[in-house]
Design goal:
about 350 residues; alpha+beta; Penicillin V Acylase, Chain A; eight-stranded mixed sheet; six-stranded antiparallel sheet; 14 strands
């Protein structure tokens, strides 16, 4: 039986936007092509959308993206040139979660202040629950854009940004947030890229607030200003902070009082509320501090298995094929990202570094 490598492929690129994209496209040509084919197949497991309608949404959203950050669109064009995948198909990757009413994945995330971390560093982490077929197109990518912060991300090849952190100490994890959406707007990943171009929390929040968004999302952050969670809807951005214990947690439902009404309007996504209670219980430290190893153990938790924090295939008619594809714990001040390639209960964490 073929064994899977413990580490993801690592790529580093640098330069102006089109150069970045060209390098990514050339280095990850096969992964981008494979992801382009697999991503829409994954979407079609939960919703059917004609290709011409999907392309129309991608093209209309491209104009929103150009208004938000034209240099990011230039990078996508560079990827297209380097990979031989069409610009339209690459934009389909950026907007595919606009086709799926409940978003693209589950996930359990947390952010921990350095004061309550035994290692004395701020940490952000999560389990990424999604279609395990996407593992083959997942890489660890370091970008060094000219004139902007460098950042490292664990990402599917072809995306403009995904889970990661920059050299200014801002790290981001992602959760689906069921709430109202609309067909077109700035693609979610462009918003995330805007966060990595920020150097402090206020800039990161502003990068999200100025977007005309198509979908809701939850963004868990670690920053020099402390742990923060952004509940983002198409109409507002709500900032959630810790309540004095140095810990912020999130799963897949709204926590801000002004957004809680959406929890009654949308079905609960893959046992979100039990997972939230469990991860907070697991991460509440005895004696006031928690180690990174204890965080890893928490992400391996199997209470309510297989619908647990460490998620496994089950009989749910729509999301039963979702599993914990990878688990990630990031320590931006140390320049470290710890990632398990597969469920953390069975796969070790490998360390990647932003030097």
């Amino acid at each position: 039986m073929k064994t899977q490598p413990a580490r993801y492929r690592e790529i580093e690129v640098a330069g102006e936007p089109t150069e970045l994209g060209q390098q990514i496209g050339e280095s990850l040509r096969e992964e981008i092509r494979g992801f382009s084919e697999a991503a829409m197949a994954s979407v079609h497991r939960t919703v059917q959308i004609p290709k011409d309608r999907a392309i129309a949404i991608a093209r209309e959203s491209t104009q929103f993206a150009k208004d938000y950050a034209p240099h990011m669109v230039d990078e996508i064009q560079g990827m297209a040139d380097g990979s031989g995948v069409s610009f339209d198909d690459l934009m389909l990757l950026q907007v595919r979660n606009q086709f799926v009413p409940e978003g693209e994945s589950g996930c359990t995330s947390f952010s921990i202040a350095k004061a309550v971390c035994a290692e004395g560093r701020a940490v952000v982490g999560q389990n990424w629950d999604n279609d395990p077929a996407l593992d083959a197109f997942t890489v660890v990518l370091t970008r060094r854009p000219a004139g902007r912060p460098a950042f490292i991300s664990i990402t599917q090849a072809g995306l403009i940004a995904y889970i990661g952190f920059n050299d200014a100490g801002i790290g981001a994890c992602l959760n689906t947030l069921p709430a109202p959406s609309r067909p077109v707007g700035v693609p979610h990943y462009f918003t995330l890229r805007g966060i990595y171009e920020a150097k402090h929390l206020a800039e990161a929040v502003a990068a999200v607030e100025r977007v005309e968004r198509a979908i809701p999302a939850n963004i868990m952050l670690t920053t020099a200003q402390g742990p923060v969670d952004l509940e983002v809807t198409i109409d507002c951005v709500q900032v959630l902070r810790d309540t004095g214990d140095g810990l912020v947690t999130h799963t897949n439902h709204c926590l801000h009082p002004e957004l809680a009404k959406f929890n009654d309007e949308f079905p609960e996504l893959i046992q979100s509320k039990p997972r939230l209670g469990r991860i907070r219980q697991q991460l509440t430290p005895e004696g006031g501090q928690i180690t990174i190893e204890a965080m890893k153990t928490s992400l391996c938790d199997h209470q309510d298995y297989p619908r647990s924090i460490c998620r496994h295939a089950n009989d749910h008619p729509y999301h039963g094929f979702w599993e914990t594809v990878f688990s990630v714990i990031m320590v931006p001040s140390a320049g470290e990202m710890h990632v398990s390639r597969g469920p953390p209960c069975s796969q070790p964490y490998a360390t990647y570094r932003l030097h």
